[in-house]
From TrEMBL:
<keyword id="KW-0732">Signal</keyword>
<dbReference type="Pfam" id="PF06629">
    <property type="entry name" value="MipA"/>
</dbReference>
<comment type="similarity">
    <text>Belongs to the MipA/OmpV family.</text>
</comment>
<dbReference type="InterPro" id="IPR010583">
    <property type="entry name" value="MipA"/>
</dbReference>
<feature type="signal peptide">
    <location>
        <begin position="1"/>
        <end position="22"/>
    </location>
</feature>
<keyword id="KW-0472">Membrane</keyword>
<protein>
    <recommendedName>
        <fullName>MltA-interacting protein</fullName>
    </recommendedName>
</protein>
<keyword id="KW-0998">Cell outer membrane</keyword>
<dbReference type="GO" id="GO:0009252">
    <property type="term" value="P:peptidoglycan biosynthetic process"/>
</dbReference>
<dbReference type="GO" id="GO:0009279">
    <property type="term" value="C:cell outer membrane"/>
</dbReference>
Length: 248
């Protein structure tokens, strides 16, 4: 189940560029995703990725998330949204003996507001959401600017963004309590909130009518609040996903 959560995370990022869809469009597909974790002695995960996207005047669903439109026109889209956050830490997945003595961190359901503003120079994408399952009790704010370029059957969408993690969010996923410290030998760590800038690019190539191939990548530079954690040995995380889809 844990890997299935990360598997769907690939879909969430693959569709995060906000590819425009017509009313009542349904897109299904499959691919492969690779995720690089920031934790010490954690191997990158490689796994199959299902793709399920749906868009209507009132509702939308992409990857692990969905929403209900409060406002929806060509320029502005405001939604109540909910999505499954696949962040987790499983001690047994680390080869570091000290990390294997830490507590498990669970993935969770996030809910909040999502907004997209379209212009001729690109579009703004932002989401503010909080944990609803009393796991991290954290808040995450994501803000990005992207530009969609289309040349025939090829669409490229590069973007630059930043994600803010609240103190509770960072503490749950990267903090080390005193109990964990005495048990594992790691120093205790209590991070504050932090900003994680990122770059992303998505590509989609349409062929044979309703068939398309897609690819997406995201590189995230982790904040000092994350990289200073004794659980972490990287300054970045990354994700790559590619696959094929069919639009009904």
């Amino acid at each position: 189940m844990t890997k299935l959560k990360l598997l769907a995370f690939g879909v969430l990022i693959a569709t995060s560029a906000g590819v425009a869809q017509a009313e009542n469009d349904l897109t299904l597909g499959a691919g492969v995703g690779v995720v690089e974790h920031p934790y010490k002695d954690y191997d990158a995960d490689v796994y199959p990725v299902p793709v399920i996207n749906y868009e209507s005047d009132n509702f939308w669903f992409r990857g692990l998330g969905g929403g209900y439109y409060l406002w929806n026109d060509k320029a502005d889209k405001l939604s109540i949204t909910a999505y499954w956050s696949p962040l987790y830490f499983k001690p047994g997945d680390s080869d570091d003996r000290r990390l294997r003595e830490l507590d498990k961190r669970k993935s969770t359901m996030m809910a909040g507001l999502s907004y997209i503003h379209n212009t001729e120079y690109g579009f703004l994408r932002t989401t503010l959401a909080g944990d609803t399952l009393d796991n991290s009790n954290g808040i995450v704010w994501d803000l990005a600017w992207l530009y969609r370029y289309t040349n025939g059957a090829l669409t490229l969408t590069p973007g630059i963004g930043v994600q803010w993690n609240s103190e509770n969010q960072n503490e749950y996923y990267y903090g080390v309590s005193r109990k964990e410290s005495s048990r594992s030998g790691l120093r205790s760590y209590d991070p504050e909130s932090g900003w994680n800038p990122y770059l992303e690019i998505s590509a989609n190539y349409n062929f044979l009518g309703d068939w398309s191939v897609y690819g997406t990548a995201r590189y995230t530079r982790l904040s000092d609040e994350v990289t200073d954690s004794p659980m972490v040995d990287k300054s970045w995380t990354g994700l790559i996903s590619t696959g094929i889809t069919y639009k009904f």
